[in-house]
Specification:
The protein is built from eleven helices and eleven strands. It has 266 residues and is α/β, with parallel strands linked by helices. Helix 7 runs antiparallel to helix 8 and helix 9 packs across helix 11.
């Protein structure tokens, strides 16, 4: 059963979604309602509640930021209910491919349903889906220029995030963070943390921290260190999530991603 909690932030409603499985893992995720639209679609097991909420609030469409199942997991149910989707082609391609989701993520979020036919959402004045790669190659954010509000998906998550999925690109993420910090948003809504205090400064702090980490990792790579040795020195022990996920979500991935994205290896 999904726990649904609503928070009002002036013109924005934050919808916090969690289940006992996600709370046990220490996670929840939010979708946002603004200008008659829903941003992201929650996780698969929350889909019935997301559809009900969309109908109750007369949502005209949903914008999907990226393919991870805690963000796109309700997209198929929304589409089947006649809710139009604004889903970038690169995101839609991954969602339609229905790649295998690791067991631990299926336990936490549920198993995504295949995406069927989609009604395309008309452009919503004031809301732009903009590419924001780094966390994932298909990651997007939603920018409201008039209100200088950034719906950041998983762009932020926190300043000193030390774990990563294998697909992440920390060097590219730094560029993306600086690009959106330069817009000087007055509000940033994070998909997991909610409102971000001092948002532009927070985005820059995260970029600075990753830049410093990259420099330290590169120096040790040049001296022949292994990923595991660098991780122990700079980031400490692997978290519980690394063992549960069989290494799919852990600190060593962060180091490996920095090594993989080094200019000399491209």
């Amino acid at each position: 059963m999904t726990d649904v909690a609503l928070e009002a932030h002036d013109d924005v409603t934050r919808v916090r979604l969690s289940s006992w499985q996600s709370r046990l893992a220490g996670y929840e995720v939010s979708v946002y309602l603004v200008r008659g639209m829903m941003i992201d679609s929650g996780f698969p097991s929350a889909a019935p509640d997301v559809v009900r909420l969309a109908r109750e609030r007369a949502v005209t469409g949903a914008l999907i930021t990226h393919h991870h199942e805690d963000h796109s997991g309700g997209a198929a149910a929304l589409a089947a209910a006649g809710i139009a989707l604004a889903i970038p082609p690169v995101v839609e391609a991954v969602v339609r491919a229905a790649a295998h989701v690791p067991l631990y993520r299926r336990v936490v979020w549920g198993t995504p349903s295949p995406l069927g036919s989609v009604t395309r959402a008309a452009a919503t004045p004031g809301l732009e889906l903009l590419p924001a790669p780094g966390h994932a190659s298909d990651h997007h954010v939603v920018w409201d220029a008039e209100r200088r509000t950034l719906f950041a998906g998983d762009l932020f998550l926190g300043v000193k995030v030390r774990v990563a999925h294998p697909e992440e690109d920390p060097r590219l993420l730094v560029q993306t963070l600086r690009r959106f910090a330069a817009l000087e948003p007055v509000r940033v809504f994070d998909a997991h943390r909610g409102t971000v205090p001092n948002p532009a400064a927070a985005l820059r702090l995260k970029a600075d921290w990753i830049d410093e980490l990259i420099a330290n990792v590169d120096a040790r790579i040049a001296r022949g260190w292994s990923d595991q040795a660098i991780r122990r020195e700079l980031l400490g022990r692997e978290p519980f999530s690394s063992y549960v996920s069989r290494g799919e979500y852990g600190k060593t991935n962060f180091i490996a991603a920095i090594r993989q994205s080094a200019p000399a290896s491209r």
